Amino acid sequence: MTRMQTPETYLHPRIGRLAAKVLAGGALSREEAHELAAVDGDDVHELFFWANKIRIRFVGPRVKFCSIVAAKVGGCSEDCGYCSQSKFHKTHVTPTRLDVDEMTEAMRQAVGDGASSFGSVNSGRGPTDAELDWLEPFYKQAVERGDIRPCATLGELSPEQAQRLKAMGVQRVNHNLETSRRHFPSIVSTHTYDDRVRTIQAEKAAGLTICSGGIFGMGEVWEDRIDMALALRELGADVVPINFLNQIEGTAVYGRAPEIEPLEALKIIAVYRFLLPDRELKIAGGREKILRDLQSWIFFAGGSSFLIGNYLTTFGRTSEQDHQMMRDLGLGYTTFDEVEHEADPAALGGGFGGRVALPVVQ
User: Fold this and answer.
1) CA-CA-CA-CA torsion sign (292, 296, 298, 303)
2) How far is it, in rounded angstroms, from Cα 252 to Cα 80?
3) N or C, which terminus of the chain has less Cβ within 10 Å?
4) Which fold has domain 45-349?
5) Which residues contact 149 (CB under 8 A, 6 or more apart)?
6) Do 47 and 270 contact (CB within 8 A), yes or no?
7) Residue 249 exposed, middle or buried by CB count within 10 Å (0-12, 13-18, 19+)
8) 227-245: string of b/e by CB count within 10 Å (b at 16+)?
9) What digits encode the pLDDT tens for the residues 215-251?
10) pTM over 0.85
């Protein structure tokens, strides 16, 4: 006689117990993280289920948008193997720089798209004093507007530069670890992992909130992914961008490793939600290319925000498409003023203005 199967028969023996530990306020160990990383087959969907419950418990049901503009592009002195802007790589990128009016127009569009944060991004190891002079009027305008969080991605910062950015009105700085300490030297040789950690520490000391994450699909293994998550937890990153490598011909990592499969990408998000339950997990670069038809699953897997609009040297989806995705899922979003909104792609053609022609490199 065949034994009758109950709902409990289908449950993974450990995922629910580890989820209960996190939901009760506990922090998972490295060994427990590896247990989650080993989940496969149909059990991956149970991992997503609990990651979503953790997201709702600690971050809330609504999501946030973030937007960026490539203010200074190309000619970078660093040899980051994934980057199309490095002077060591022959790619499609031509060095260029925006003026303050162009950056302000991009910020206006980001507000219209519903973004809660907007960041200007510079290529290069770190900013010069002259570059900070160039950026200061833009950040002061952002502060005067008061309708979006001013952010910066400028590379390596000294303590004095971090303090100056804070005085300008910048609230959050992005500086990614990119990968684990072990894997870092195989990706970058012109600066060290510790250089990145020092910048994050200087930013925190200046009173800036920290946006720091990494790129997945550069040949790392799960040990590296878990190492980076635990390092970000220790550093106190407030926002953790999860990028999936969009391989660009001419870069050092092009063709080095196969692209991540969509379910593996979602599994990375879910494991990070278990390890970083109360952080904003921002799904950023490579979303369209790697996740394909599973983009809408990022929230079910534990993601709580995403990059809307264009990336640095590649285009993203239209804001209308992303708002339609949100509407179809029944998800709302929160803007900088903590006001909750329902997604409405039709509104983007009115007061929000749609997508404008800015000098984004392609």
Assistant:
1) positive
2) 8
3) N
4) TIM Barrel (3.20.20)
5) 116, 117, 118, 171, 172, 336
6) yes
7) exposed
8) bbbbbbbeeebebbbbbbb
9) 999 999 999 999 999 999 999 999 999 999 999 888 9
10) yes
